[in-house]
Fold:
Amino acid sequence: MTDKEPILIIDDEVQIRRLLEITLSANGYKVISASTGHDGIQIAATHSPILIILDLGLPDADGLEILRKLREWYQKSIIILSVRSSEEDIVKALDRGASDYLTKPFRTGELLARIRASIRQNQGTPGNSLLPFGSLEVDLANHVARKNNEIIKLTSTEFSLLALLAKNEGRVLTHQFILKEVWGMGYMEQTQYLRVFVAQLRKKIEDEPTKPKLLITESGIGYRFGS
Structure:
C-alpha cells in the first residue's frame, strides 16, 4: 500500500480498532480510523481510502445510514464488520451497497482474504476482458469460458450468470441482485430457479461440484465467487 491508499476503519470499539490496526499494519497496509460514522465520512472524503471497514453499531448513527451516505460518492469496497448476524441485516447491507459482510467475532485470516479480494476488484482494469481463476478462464469479450484451455459449453444464461459472478470476485451477491441482473425484475423472488442454474454451472466449472471452490453458497443470502 502507498501512503495515498489507506484502509479506513469506522468502529467505536477501541479494542477492535487496535486489533485491526495491528493486524493490517503487520500485513503491509496503512490504516486510519474513526470512532463515529460522521467522522468516518469526513475522513473518507479527505483521505481517499482504498477500502473501508464499517461497523453497523455506531454511537452517532446507524451503520446502514452511514453506508447509504458513503455510497452517494464512494465507489470502492466497503466491508461490513458487525455483531449483527441475522440474514435480514446481512441482506439489507449488501443490497444497500456493502461489498462484503463479516460478523464479530471474526477470524483475522478470513478478513485479510476478503480485503485482498476486494482490493483486487477495486484495482481491476476496466478494459480487461479476460478473467483467470486457476484452470478456469472467463473471456468476457468473446462470451466464452475455458477450463484447462478447453471451451466449456454454456448456454447464454449460464454465461451471463458466470460473468456476473466472476466480475464480482470475492463479493457476496444476494439472490435478488443476481436474479435482477441476469433475468430481470420479474424474477427477483425466484430463488429456486437460481439454485437450479447454479447447480448446472457448478457441474461445468468445478472440479468437484458437490464441494465447490469457485461458486460458494452464502446460506440464505446469495453466492460468492472466489478462486
DSSP finds eight helices and twelve strands in the chain. The two ends are 23 Å apart (CA to CA).
